[in-house]
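Researcher: Next entry in the queue.
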Amino acid sequence: MEAMLPSVEDWLAASWTDYKRRWLPLMAVLALTGLATAAAVFLPLIPAGLAAYAGAASSWLIWAAAFAVSLLAGLWFTTWAQAASLRAAANDEGPSVSMGLGWRQTAAFAWVLSILMLAAGGAFVLLIVPGLVLTALLFFAPFYQMSGEDHGMGAIELSYARVKPHFGAVCGRLALVIGIVWLPSWIPYLGWLIAPLWAPFGLVACARLANDLKTLNPAPARPALGAAVAGLSFIFIAASFAITWGAAAAGTSLYESYAAGKLSLKAPDAETAQALIATLQGQGTEEDRARSTAYVMSLSSGSMAAP
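Model: Structure for this entry, 307 residues:
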């Protein structure tokens, strides 16, 4: 007989016990990593401002370099914050231990998270349902990465192998966690104060679910997902490039039309203006409404044809 996940009631009760025990260290990690991330983002701007004020180099060069450093620091520290928070939610350890081990695991955590997002993104490009399905199957890869069970693609395949036999139950629990975490938003006036204190419960509950899956199947037979993940990643990157190129081409075309004066809209004559005002005020006649409609349609046709 195939082993089953603990009941929803037992899972939630265990998650609540974990949450109460780990709440203070987890909140400390969230607060400290948040402050560190904010400092990492804004500190590079201080020397940049001083250098620009002193005229040390071109302002464009100074601020471009400062924003590049700020962006890279923000990405790294944000990833570290996620890694440390995941450790604090899944383990009974102090904030300093979670942040220290999380810092050393940041690069590996970023890699497995990137693989997951690229694969899920490619599935979402195909259709919403495949994207949701694959996201659920690969969802626990970062948890197994941070626990030290495996790394990179190995953690991806481990998550897939453990979730697949219990796919329906896992999806139901993930949907339930989302609903539970969303509950404070329905509380008038106080919801925004409660939400930051309550939201980490979702992370703890997911960590408990990852551990339940591990207990059921410590060493599952893993599928080879490298080719599939590579294909989905390519689809996502190609779709992103196509969207970016299309947006840039549309923007260029629109600017060229504007520069050529093709987007200049014809102002209404006095009678049409009066008809528009009367129609907007709800006092226009049938003739006013017909004149207003004809004028608006002429503007729409002109602006659509311009590019």
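Model: The chain has two domains: 8-238, 267-307.
Researcher: Noted, moving on.
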